[in-house]
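Work Package 3 committed the consortium to producing structural models of liganded targets before the mid-term review. Because experimental data for this complex are still outstanding, the team generated a predictive model from sequence and the ligand definition alone, so that downstream docking and mutagenesis planning could proceed in parallel. The input record is reproduced below exactly as it was submitted to the modelling pipeline, together with the SMILES string for fe (ii) ion.
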Amino acid sequence: MKDAYRFPDLASIVRIVQITDPHLFASDDGRLLGVPTIQSFQAVLDAIQQEPFDYDFILATGDLVQDHNREGYHRFAQMVKPLKKPIFWLEGNHDLQTQMHNALALYAQIQPHKQILVGDKWQVLMLDSHIEGIPKGALSDAQLSWLAEKLAEYPERNVLIALHHNILPTNSAWLDQHSLANPYQLATVLEPFRHNIKGIIHGHIHQEVDSEWLGYRILATPSTCIQFKPNCDQFTLDPLPQGWRELELFPNGTIHSRVKRLMHNTFLPDFNGWGY
Ligand SMILES: [Fe+2]
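The resulting structure, written out as tokens with the ligand in place, is given here.
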């Protein structure tokens, strides 16, 4: 989708919820390392609705399905319907682009736009970093050109960039081999707009990060299913509960953000699992 989605009349602070890596299955009882991903995703959606945070829209940052079945996308669309806010999405390594696009296009709540213009101070840009069939990511020349074009189009706006893959290492060898493969090409595109870029958010690593890369703020968000423990060279699950992220974008370019998690640990994984 080449044109932009415009939110013309939002309040001065833009509020966003990020959900990521739900890894849904076609069947009701599909489990990822013991976690029933549909139930854990439902618990996160229920918790989001119980929060006082009055968000304007939702970013879903990839790995919406686990089993390469388009039914998972229909399930996603039906499950998010009660949130009653626009949802924007991008592809993760577990997603199948054509099936994802075709299935989600059937739902009016779910938007295909990758450039979101919010009021007159911000734009959110959604990048596709997935490479069909393999876990690691990369930004294609087409994606990098699109990003450069969109940054140049609104040089007065603050920018939040979203993608699926991590740029910074997690200090976990098994996971870091699946990072974004060409971060320095991204850095080259961002450099002329350094003062516009206020944050880069992603999923993929199933853990919370609030850090810095080349002076850019990097935010990563827990999955709505299994959690990966940081600083572990072998595959290691984390008993932390499932989560999501709240973001507040201020007119002066400041981002306030926090991760929220379920208040209970109903969905513990099978800790004997060796990979996913
Ligand atoms: Fe994932």
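Reviewers should note the following from the model. The chain has a mean pLDDT of 95. These observations will guide the Year 2 experiments.
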